[in-house]
Design brief:
The complex is a heterotrimer. Chain A is built from 13 helices and no strands. Chain A is mainly alpha-helical. The chains are: A mainly alpha, B alpha/beta, C mainly alpha.
Amino acid sequence: MKTIRAEGAAAAEEVDRSWRALPKHAALMLASLAMLYPLLWMLSSSFKPEDEIFSDLSLWPQTVTLMNYVEGWFGLGIQFGRFFLNSLIVSGLAVIGNLVACSLAAFAFARLEFPLKKLWFAAMLGTLMLPYHVTLIPQYVLFQKLGWLNTFWPLVVPKFLAVDAFFIFLMVQFFRGIPRELDEAAVIDGCGPWRIYWSIMLPLSRPVLAAAAIFSFIWTWDDFFGPLLYLTDVANYTVPLALRGFIDSTSRSAWGPLFSMSILSLVPVFAAFLMFQKHIIEGIAASGLKR
Amino acid sequence: MAKTVSRRDALRLGALIAAPAILTLAGLPVSAQAGRLRISWWGGADRAKRTQAAIDAFKSRNAGLDIVPESVGWDAYWTKLATQVAGGNPPDIIQMDYRYLPEYARRGALRPLDDLIPSVIDPSDYVPSVIEAGKIDGKQYGIPMGMNSDVLLYDKTMLDKLGLPAPTPEMSWAEFTTLGENITKKANKRGYFGAADPSVMEPELEYWVLTRGRTLYDASGRLGFTRDDAESWLALCAEMRAKGAIAPADIAATDKITIDSDLLTTGRAAITFTNSNQIVGYQAANKSKIGMAFHPKGEKPGEYLKPSMMLCVSASAADPKAAAALIDFMVLKPDGAKLLGVERGVSPSAKVRELLAADLDETGRLQVDHLSALSKRGPAPLPPAPPKGAAEVTALIRQAAEKTGFKQLTPKQAADQLVSEAERVLSKA
Amino acid sequence: MAALHDTTLAAPGLPARRRRSGAWRQALPGYLFLAPWLAGFFLLTLGPTLVSLYLSFTDFDLLRSPQWVGGANYERIFSSDPKFWASVGVTLSYVVLSVPLKLGFALAIAMWLNRGIAGLGLYRAIFYLPSLLGGSVAVAILWKQVFGYDGLVNQLLWLVFGVNGPSWISNPETSLYTLVLLSVWQFGSPMIIFLAGLRQIPRDLYEAASIDGASRRQQLTKITLPLLAPVIFFNLVLQTIEAFKAFTPAFIISGGTGGPVDSVLFYTLYLYQQGFAYFRMGYASALAWILLLTIAAFTALAFLSQRYWVHYEDDPR
């Protein structure tokens, strides 16, 4: 019987700890600094008093204050934790929805044969090409007719209906990288498409599923426009919407609280990234199909 | 085996799709209910706090009334409002800007309030020109919340440090230019200039044409100024730029006409041009002390009292009377007006102004004093409401300023382009 | 899109009889798996899309009902709208510059990070950070700090060459390039996708190649790139689409104006101005459909090109 062994990352990665790795580390660290700079700046701004943020752009605050965190957490009338909870619910459901619905559709496009397939595939790609500004209003009317305004439904249900074609196409490309002999062997063993999807495709696609999970979580977490239009009650606000509540270009803004809460809001996103990226790296080695 | 789905497979598939959907159902908030009052405004955290306090006070006096606040920053506000109105789900009370009032009123999105005046709202002691500004085609659509005027703000700390005088009410443009030059020279800091570039700002062109006895738009919605007005303005700014009195084009281009990108806030200029009520925001973002002054004087008055923002009732409001009562509470009743303070501008109502006079902070005091000085000095009459297409003309004005600033066009060429394109836009609109 | 690559083939070895007689029985699993997407497409996506197509033939000011004007919007776009052409120029330059740079960068870093080196997880996380910030307000302020009048770049120029640089971000000559750099800087998503693709390449292939004495370069051109082609293809198509539709960077950096002097007037920014600032949603919809057709043409070309450079594991050999 065929055994798939260690595709991708072999169990033991040879880590180069010798001195030869030093220049590489130096280069990577330099690059990291360029990447980290904005974060450091935001971090330092979150400890600066309001009137110092724009007039003094240095990374080290002249005066350190914790007020921004207190103001930020309590300043919007509702504790900021509520917005975190809302965002977690929406983003968590988005991850589940995208993974389930998009992998189903991707499996159909990658492995199954059915009439009009090319048409549907083209239509699927087509949905990526229209700028969202012109569908905002019809979509708003649609969700209003459904009675979904001021609920999480408009933000979550589309994910369970695989509306984001990005993920379908992404998964199609990876599914097609899995050798077809595997399915054929399974078919001979009496497996239906469901078994092939569940027991072959999904386990062998952990890296791409993890990547899709990362993007779903982060993009939903960062989304501003959807929540802006569909959530009206402050108690339902997600984090980005609440963050924008601190600032207004025409009146007094609360920049310090904005930055302090922005820093906090990076924590869950970063945690999600670390959690899922492990699966990209581990690859599919651990879950080979052994029979 | 062929690739067909057994019944069991189909069931599993169904369960996989349905389970999260059911999960979703459980933990979500219920949809909007009828019979509540929605109020929407743009603003930051400070404004939200004040407004929420006023709403709570109104609620405690009107048991059973549910009021839902919606607030967001200026940029997102207009997209959201347009979508809500187009989607047939506008808020009952809408905070409105002077520029957008005609757009919404003439398209039937707002409800005239004449039948509720003075029975529910009584603005009889308002400054006449300010309440007038809430009228479109003879009907009262907007109730001004506060009034302001176009002013100069300056970095008092910096001017004191440099030993230079603050701008005076009788100063001419030539004196202003000299002041700007002196600031630039004495400060002697790379990238620091006397004043921001006024030519990129539409209200400053308006000030210029008003001092020349013209307006941006006439009453029938056509362009109210000439090529000559525009050219002289662009040439004056070019001269100030050449002398180093105002910021050069590439620095002016970083000014997005917002408080956080303004050259005064970012430490690029000592003087800027803005609305008087925004001093609250400027002072909060600046370490230096901020002062307020009149523009350089022209032949005719160019500063006028205008509504900083208004409250309107949506045409589809279910209970316009309750909506009007809340507006009245916020702008005219002592309890409500006290909670809002002068953050949205100085009240146009003499009674309320007097009431608030006692506990004004420094930025509030500066606003009140400046506006009463303006009233004494004689403000310009209220110009006609901006017509459809005005937003596009604003962009054209900025474009013309940038093209002269980057020396792509001479002031004359830019003025020609501005006027002919603006006329084209207005004739189409 | 007629020339889409044939994405599947019926499993070879099936008796021909079954394939013919059971066409619909065979179709059933496909449609079952596709059911959620089909439901979403017909319930949520198709309606608003068709409405926007209809609106593109109307005069629609958002607040009153749309008036049918036939092809007038399209005619005006092509005949008398200089801003349309300006935005096309800006957008095309952005696509042509940012897509190859960003993808090249992402691929190089992904390959580098795929090798054995201590602390890789940390580097990967750090390199993804800029993408976490997305289009937040902080990015606008930050970019001004780097490319502004006395930003980081000019400070370096002064230190190294003793020259005073301009304000790169607000100069019509250079502002677009700062946005290209911003897009390259946020290379996290394609990098992650490349990494996932690299992880799917069977390691034994490299082992076998090493035993056969293949050089690193040969391994790259004979193993890595060919096996990564479907993923490269994906990133190329998607990043091109994204670049055509880019909105947020120009919006936050220029404060929604597209200036100075229209130098960063991206196509979708112009479309947004027309629709929401000038109340011309019909015109904006027409602009959107022109963009859709343009992107579709580019995508179709990409799919046509696949036969020359993309090979799938499930292709017949």
